[in-house]
Amino acid sequence: MSLRHRTGTAAGAVALAALLAAPALPSSAQAADLIVSNWDGYMAPDIAERFQAETGLELEVVNHATNEEIMGKLMASGGKGLDLVFVSSPFAEVLNHQGLAAGIDHAEVPNLANLYPAATEFAYDPGNAFSVPYTWGTTGLCYRSDLVGQPVESWDILLDPPAELEGKVTMLSTDRWLMAAGLLATGHSVNATDEAAIEEAKQALIEAKKQLLAYDDTTFYSKLVSGEASLVHAWDGWCNYGIAENGDIRFVVPQEGSDLWVDTMVVMEASENKEAAHRFIDFVLDPANHAWAVENILYKVPNRVAMERLPASLVEQYPNLGMSPEELTGYQLMRDLGEAQRAYSRAVSEIKAAN
Amino acid sequence: MMSLSNHEACGLRASDPRVTPAIRKILPSGPGLAAAPGVAWLAVFMIAPCLLVFAYAFLTRGLYGGVVDELTLDNLLRVLDPLYAGIFLTSTRIAGLATLLAVLVAYPAAYAIVLSPRHWQPLLLFLAVLPFWSNYLIRTYAWIVLLNREGMVNQGLTLLGYEGEPLSLLYSEGAVVVGLVYNYLPFVILAIYATLSRLDPQLKEASRDLGASAVATFVRVTLPLSAPGVAAGAVFVFVLSIGNFITPALLGGGRFQMVGNLIYDQFLTANDWPFGAALGMALILVMMALLFLQARVTDRVSGGRVGAGNA
After folding, report:
1. Is the dihedral of CA B137, B139, B140, B145 positive or negative?
2. Are B221 and B306 in contact (CB under 8 A)?
């Protein structure tokens, strides 16, 4: 889910410019047999060649920078122009509510059998009726064990750091995760929608801002590597990028718990190439193909066969890749907030504007 | 401001008696034809998008992005909410500070270039503009390399014998202002240089001949006459700074919310296009007001021709 940020602010600027004008969708619809939109770098770069070699179908991959960007396009176009999109689960939920998501025909995706049973029972889509999970993970604290003198166990160390960490912690700035840190630290659900909970989390986060080095969604792990920060609020996969460069970096999920995020594949109801889209999902769920994401972008995938095949050395180097499905599904599944998203956005604006 | 068509600006009209029939043939009969490409460009890429922004500001947000066709004034009223008005004020303060610093640095620089030997001036201007050859993001990232706690400034201090905790220079309002000044300074130098280099040197000589000191000459002749350049440069920095969102995100570490960031968030995370459009509209109005003021300054100076005639 975090990969949405990899392309960062500059790509966002371009997206912003494109948004106000009529939504631009790929125009070469006649050429390809299948058009898929995904975050940049989230699949193997040669996936189109390999998909064509195996199925004879021509695949065109387009990129989106954020969930919101692709949702804006899909809402405006009614889902036309794209056959399959990668979105985070709360957005898949919305696509389904809006009637934009096609059903998944399980008979056409035999590789669904490779998924962990837990990955077929998500509350937003039990039985994978309209979405198929691609990656999953959680959010926690990523820190330099050589620079942090005390145990890292609670969200409190992020929100109310001891003197040695003042000015040396960063937090995620995207609404849902920033608020999640405040909500979890104050004993609420990451999906809390009541005003009192949002207010309490907001106050805690405004207080926390005083000891904060920066809000950072994209470069927090390099701040850890350089020693600029000692402890950062991080997605599990991204903490691995820090671990790759510095073996003293550790990832921990605080005792209060955390969120479970799932990035999914959704076939568009408006697609005229649903059969090809199903073949693509089946192709991705092939253990060898699905393992690419684990080995190259260091995210966990809900594919039992792919995970069991991982080299032990990889899990040893990046321990959070070894989290069990039971552990992951024990965290709070991030859900669509509906109207309450506005309250979250406003709270985050107030936090960012506070001194 | 931009209403003069080209041939009016150089004093030649098709109706001018000096124009021979041969010339009349190549001059368009009105301002129309020659201006057409520019007008078309502006209409399609400037006026139409602005109208779109204005229209969106009056619509209702769709729950998941996009807009619903229900007219409302809520978005515009929300801009006046103390939270968002406060963000406008913060942005104004940061942009104002950046503008002030940029002018204070650029004016002496432009003055020095004008005073240097003629054949050196192109090279000096070239050097002033040189940073523009690299990308805005790279120039901004360079400041992160310089200012961060493990950065070059702190390393330099350590080399000089400083032994305390590294200084926290980055992710502060100061870092944002420095980044803005650095990025927009060349514009101001160019704008001020343009007016200073066109000043008639005889005006200065006359002032000195009539007994004014060098300081009085500068304050009463050079400075007022260069006001249009200062105004143009200042408005440029201010307008680009107040809407900027990359510099506060990178150098402010997201800890300083400017209008640009707020608008960005409305479109890319909050899914509230109409409110984003309303904020954008407010920003456009601020900018238009400033450009109007700048035009007034320019008019006053070029219309008044200083006090030279009265002296």
Report:
1. positive
2. yes
- What confidence tens digit (pLDDT) does each residue in A167-180 have? 999 999 888 999 99
pLDDT tens-digit map of B135-192: 999 999 999 999 988 888 988 998 998 888 888 889 999 999 999 999 999 999 999 9
From A15, A214, A338, residue closest to B253, measured CB to CB? A214
Record the tokens describing residue B147, joined without a space.
């200012």
CA A36 → CA A32, A92, A314, B137, distances in Å?
Answer: 10, 15, 29, 29
Q: What domains sit in chain A, N to C, each tagged with a CATH number?
A: 2-136+261-323 (3.40.190.10), 137-259+336-353 (3.40.190.10)
Is the distance from CB of A55 to CB of A82 less than 8 angstroms? no
Structural tokens at position A296 = 């190259």
Tokens of A222: 């390099």
- Res. A351: pLDDT tops 60: yes
Looking only at the bridges linking them, the beta strands covering A259-267 and A332-333 are parallel
Please state the pTM of the whole predicted model: 0.82
Structure tokens at B138: 């790279």
Preferred mutation among B44, B47, B50, B63 to probe A, highest tally of A CBs within 10 A: B63
Q: What letters, b where the CB count within 10 A reaches 16 and e where it falls short, cover A265-280?
A: bbbbbbbebbbbbbbb
Cβ contact, residue pair A353, B87, below 8 Å: yes
Question: A181: Cβ–Cβ under 8 A, 6 or more apart, which residues?
Answer: A155, A158, A159, A171, A172, A205, A233
d(CA B7, CA A314): 72
CATH number for the domain formed by residue range(s) B78-304: 1.10.3720.10
Alpha-helical runs (H) found in B160-226: 173-198, 201-209, 214-217, 223-225
pLDDT for residue A185: 97
How many angstroms from the chain centroid is the CA of residue B1? 16
Residue of A9, A212, A339 with shortest CB distance to B249: A9
Q: Does an H or E element contain B37, and which?
A: helix B32-42
| Cβ-Cβ contacts under 8 Å, A175 against chain B | 269-270
Q: Which residues pair with A142 in a beta bridge?
A: A232, A251
Residue A33, both tokens: 């047999």
Kindly report, residue by residue over B27-59, the tens digit of the pLDDT.
555 667 888 899 999 999 999 999 999 999 999
Q: Give me the count of residues in chain B.
A: 311
Q: Is the pLDDT of residue A28 over 70?
A: no
Tell me which of A279-283, B211-215, B241-245 is least confident.
B211-215
Question: Which residue in B246, B253, B268 is closest to A68 by CB distance?
Answer: B268
CA distance A327 to B101: 55
Cβ separation B246–A13 shorter than 8 A:
yes
DSSP state of A24: P
Which tens digit of pLDDT belongs to each residue from A64-73?
A: 988 888 988 8
Look at strands A34-39 and A59-64 and give their pairing: parallel
Question: What's residue A29's pLDDT?
Answer: 44
Domain ranges for chain B: 1-30, 78-304
Output the DSSP codes for B254-279. Answer: T-S--HHHHHHHHHHTS--HHHHHHH
Interchain pair B270, A341: CB under 8 A = yes
What pLDDT score does B101 carry? Answer: 98
